[in-house]
């Protein structure tokens, strides 16, 4: 390829929003991303990058991707490339992608320095792990199979999970998880991976919704709505992938990954509308919609995190509502939190990572009355679907922790960003790693964090703010 040909190809690119020019018998392609993006998009144009890579590199041979970008976009760009190469396939006559294809990504930064960027490989593997779990159908990824994935990650990072399974959930008071999963052949599970390093200044808990299949229960989904419900475990898959990467990067705070696993199945033991369950919070819930099951399992997990794990920061992530797609669309997850500071931080981490989020209205005093019940402390589904339904779903979880709880609570509803077309995206892994990037010594994660690599004009090496709180500054 001559220099003149290369310059001609570059001049021919007129991105709207992207453009490509094939080179040398289509064996190479030069492509251009959007020259600018709106304030609610990621500066990395990560979603466009994923599409370009999928389009330009459809073959099975080894591939090489070179990205020219700002250093601040490397993390999001690496994650975007990882999403273009899913692992799961059951097409006959094909070897697994890992056996047949090697992809090398190289980043040329406009302002390079000597800091290594090799940790991008670790993030990419964790995103592909999450997407593989979500892509796998329930006949291969029931609650027991998911538990094996958790144990495998635990073994990889030197952590033995705490497991509460089946009837033990009911005995210990986890009425939400048990009630959702009790009709399935594979029993429901609460599993916890814990990383507790010396010198930790606070405790963080990530709660993942792991509904391995959602029929809707007796409030059954229609024939066009049920296909794809293998993806209802995407929140738990994201937590698993993020935990793996965070611990491998030497996460410096106490970190607990809580997995609420169940299959919302139909059978003689299935929960009925009108049944009343007592959740781990002690509050009673009248079931008026068995297809609003995710909030039940997450409420148990969140209360366990606050009561048993003594978490200071609780983040739950889930494919929770169909309303999320109506409110924030297919690219932005819906965000609900009791902290204005963390709301801003989540939005910034989303833009830095490519896992975009958009805040919802947080007004429990206006909206929680939607769950009023004459028979129990609350119902599990709103009385008026048109009254901030997506916010209300999150508020149900927050109510069990308590709206006056002194810690930080963050809820991420990523029902639609969890997949693109027929494939899982691994959404959530990059968001969690970026949001808590300051809890690691990794330069790439610190750069993607809400604080960036520089705080108040000084490089954040120690991670500790000089104040009386003595907690590591994260946002």
What does this structure look like?
- The protein has 475 residues and is α/β, with parallel strands linked by helices.
- It has helices at 3-12, 46-56, 74-83, 97-100, 120-135, 143-157, 167-171, 175-181, 234-248, 294-307, 323-328, 340-353, 364-367, 389-401, 429-435, 443-448; strands at 19-23, 28-32, 63-69, 103-109, 162-165, 189-195, 203-214, 254-264, 276-278, 284-286, 313-318, 333-337, 357-359, 378-379, 408-413, 419-420, 423-424, 454-455, 458-459.
- The protein has an eight-stranded mixed β-sheet with strand order 5-6-8-7-11-15-12-13, sandwiched between helices. Strands 9-10-14 form a three-stranded mixed β-sheet. It has a two-stranded antiparallel sheet with strand order 1-2.
- Helix 8 (175-181) runs antiparallel to helix 10 (294-307).
- The longest helix has 16 residues, at 120-135.
- It is globular and about 75 Å long.
- The N and C termini lie far apart (47 Å).
**Biggest sheet record:** 8 strands, mixed
Question: Termini separation (Å)?
Answer: 47 Å
Q: What is the overall silhouette?
A: globular
> What is the typical, i.e. mean, pLDDT?
92
| Strand tally | 19
The helix count comes to 16
Q: Report the structural category.
A: alpha/beta
Overall helicity: 25-40%
Beta-strand percent range: 15-25%
Query: Could you give the order of strands across the largest sheet?
Result: 5-6-8-7-11-15-12-13
The rounded Rg comes to: 22 Å
Low-confidence spans: 455-469
Question: Summed up, what is this model?
Answer:
The chain has helices spanning 3-12, 46-56, 74-83, 97-100, 120-135, 143-157, 167-171, 175-181, 234-248, 294-307, 323-328, 340-353, 364-367, 389-401, 429-435, 443-448, and strands at 19-23, 28-32, 63-69, 103-109, 162-165, 189-195, 203-214, 254-264, 276-278, 284-286, 313-318, 333-337, 357-359, 378-379, 408-413, 419-420, 423-424, 454-455, 458-459. It has 16 helices and 19 strands.
């Amino acid at each position: 390829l001559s220099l003149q040909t290369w310059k001609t190809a570059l001049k021919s690119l007129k991105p709207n929003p992207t453009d490509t020019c094939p080179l040398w018998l289509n064996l190479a392609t030069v492509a251009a991303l959007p020259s600018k993006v709106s304030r609610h998009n990621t500066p990395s144009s990560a979603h466009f990058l994923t599409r370009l890579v999928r389009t330009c590199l459809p073959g099975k041979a080894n591939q090489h991707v070179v990205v020219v970008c700002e250093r601040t976009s490397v993390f999001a760009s690496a994650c975007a490339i990882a999403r273009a190469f899913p692992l799961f396939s059951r097409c006959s006559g094909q070897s697994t992608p890992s056996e047949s294809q090697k992809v090398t990504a190289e980043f040329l930064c406009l302002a390079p320095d000597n800091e290594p960027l090799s940790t991008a490989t670790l993030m990419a593997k964790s995103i592909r792990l999450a997407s593989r779990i979500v892509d796998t159908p329930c006949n291969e990824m029931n609650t027991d199979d998911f538990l094996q994935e958790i144990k495998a990650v635990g073994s990889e990072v030197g952590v033995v999970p705490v497991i509460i399974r089946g009837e033990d959930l009911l005995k210990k008071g986890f009425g939400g998880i048990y009630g959702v999963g009790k009709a399935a052949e594979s029993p429901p599970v609460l599993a916890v991976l814990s990383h507790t390093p010396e010198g930790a200044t606070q405790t963080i808990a990530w709660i993942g919704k792991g509904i391995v299949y959602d029929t809707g229960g007796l409030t059954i989904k229609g024939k066009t709505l049920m296909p794809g419900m293998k993806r209802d475990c995407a929140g738990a898959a994201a937590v698993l992938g993020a935990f793996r990467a965070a611990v491998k990067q030497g996460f410096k705070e106490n970190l607990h990954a809580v997995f609420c696993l169940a299959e919302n199945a139909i059978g003689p033991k299935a929960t009925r509308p009108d049944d009343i369950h007592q959740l781990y919070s002690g509050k009673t819930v009248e079931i008026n919609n068995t297809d609003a099951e995710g909030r039940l399992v997450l409420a148990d997990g969140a209360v366990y995190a606050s009561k048993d794990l003594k978490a200071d920061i609780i983040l739950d992530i889930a494919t929770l509502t169909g309303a999320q797609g109506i409110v924030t669309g297919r690219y932005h997850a819906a965000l609900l939190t009791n902290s204005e500071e963390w709301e801003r931080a989540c939005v910034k981490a989303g833009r830095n990572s490519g896992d975009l989020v958009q805040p919802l209205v947080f007004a429990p005093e206006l909206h929680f009355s939607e769950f009023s019940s004459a028979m129990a402390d609350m119902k599990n589904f709103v009385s008026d679907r048109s009254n901030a339904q997506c916010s209300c779903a999150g508020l149900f979880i927050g109510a069990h922790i308590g709206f006056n709880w002194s810690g930080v609570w963050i809820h991420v509803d990523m029902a639609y960003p969890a997949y693109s077309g027929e494939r899982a995206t691994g959404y959530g892994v990059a968001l969690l790693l970026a949001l808590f990037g300051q809890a690691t010594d990794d330069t790439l994660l610190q750069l993607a964090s809400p604080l960036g690599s520089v705080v108040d004009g000084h490089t954040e090496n120690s991670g500790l703010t000089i104040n009386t709180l003595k907690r590591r500054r994260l946002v």
